[in-house]
Write a structure and sequence with these properties.
The structure is a homodimer. Chain A is an alpha/beta fold. Chain A is about 40% helix and about 15% strand. Chain A binds a DNA duplex through α1, α3 and β2.
Chain lengths: ~240, ~240
DNA sequence: GCATGTGAATAGATTCACAGCG
DNA sequence: CGCTGTGAATCTATTCACATGC
């Protein structure tokens, strides 16, 4: 039972393509979570999920799920729930995952290595199209079935492979220069793993993952819990929303 | 010029230890950013920074810096700015980084490997005290100058090393079981890299890093930018706050 | 009847703007 | 005078609670 796309779309009626509502940033950040949960549900042949069930799977509450999904459109059925396959498709489309995204990883150290081999990327349509490192010693080395190429080839690679997303996994010292080169080459989205604040033009999206920052945040709550008195004082303080 | 701790602390006056104000979660998450910026400033022998300068370094705005720092106390000097060394100490203390945190990494695949070798941890007082993997084939293997130990040894390791923080870098399928074991062993903070929602007791802090979720968020904004019309339509839409 | 979808209420975070003080 | 520290205003996100419609 897959609903048809027909039937009055609430917004911008008529004009064919994407719904184009403005989705809150917090909601966008949770869509991948719902996607993953729906994929799990689909694996167990579940055809329908309630907001309650989906919330449980994604680790959030049901009201949030409903509100979030309502930004995409009215894709549920009252009294029933959401069709798993249909919602999967809608979220995928909204996230732009119905297309293939070639990515380049710059900086093939320990982390770059791990990212190059990470299965989770390809599972979501992110294809690691090239590996780049400035170290001449690394050039030509085979990593994850690919040859590592030089930083001077970056512009060519981005153009040839039509790469829009770059991953920076270099040491902090060279990360800004690498980001600049990525932008110059035409990349418009950057995921930064280097522990440094990058500056990019306004029309380039930037997200960061900082491993040691996450530990520092845990340290804060951990200390607080421990400081709050001796005998196992269990102050219920969840550091993250998951 | 390092200020003394004396002088009327606004909150809970008198009773010696930690200030114990309630700091907003968003602020806690930015403190590590300020810390890093201050360390950079200290390297260049800068003794004082204004909120303006610190904001620039941390990639946020000055009002936010002042508001954030005000939760820690009145550690600045009007007309002057913040003393770098003093503020470094205060933030470190607030984050609990004046003590050493031994951590255990469970799951020594590509990512676990990279994490075990990550320099950024030790730089902030996080000492990788043990590596654990359930795969008997990995047991005894040397990684980052350590021997990988078995999952059955986990409880003993946590107790012996007084480990409060565990890092889960296993495949999704076993992550929950590993988390359960960590909790049973007495770990009260978990950083999860597995792409799955973990459930832990209320008195355990949990944070997650999901590599492919970050890419999916970038994909959303990237698609949106590209979908908005052909000729380089530069919709200024920054995906993250850095 | 039951679960969605959504206005309204609440909570939390950010930004403004300026009083206060070195 | 210059920059911090902070109430007040604003914006964003979450939660509530119920009308709506299958």
């Amino acid at each position: 039972m897959v609903k048809q796309l027909a039937g009055g779309e609430a917004d911008t009626p008529g004009n064919g393509e994407r719904p184009r509502r403005r989705i809150p940033e917090a909601t966008v950040a949770r869509l991948p979570l719902y996607l993953r949960s729906l994929l799990e549900a689909a694996e167990t042949k579940t055809t329908t999920v309630s907001s309650e069930r989906l919330a449980e799977m994604a680790g959030v509450n049901a009201a949030k799920v409903r509100k979030d999904l309502s930004y995409l459109g009215s894709y549920g059925t009252r009294g029933v729930g959401y069709d798993v396959e249909y919602l999967l498709f809608q979220i995928s489309r909204e996230l732009g995952l119905t297309q293939d995204w070639p990515v380049v990883i710059v900086g093939i150290g320990n982390l770059g290595h791990a990212l190059a081999n990470y299965k989770g990327f390809s599972e979501r349509g992110f294809r690691v199209a090239a590996l780049v490192d400035s170290d001449p010693a690394k050039r030509g080395e085979a990593v994850a079935g690919m040859r590592v190429r030089g930083l001077d080839e970056l512009a060519q690679i981005v153009a040839d492979e039509r790469i829009a997303i770059g991953i920076v996994a270099t040491p902090a010292t060279v990360a800004q220069e690498v980001a600049d080169r990525l932008v110059a080459a035409g990349v418009t989205s950057i995921l930064n793993f280097a522990p440094v604040v990058l500056t990019v033009p306004d029309d380039v999206s930037l997200r960061k993952v900082d491993l040691s920052i996450e530990l520092q945040i845990l340290s804060y709550y951990q200390q607080r819990r421990m400081g709050a008195g001796e005998a196992g004082a269990a102050i219920s303080e969840l550091a993250s929303v998951q």
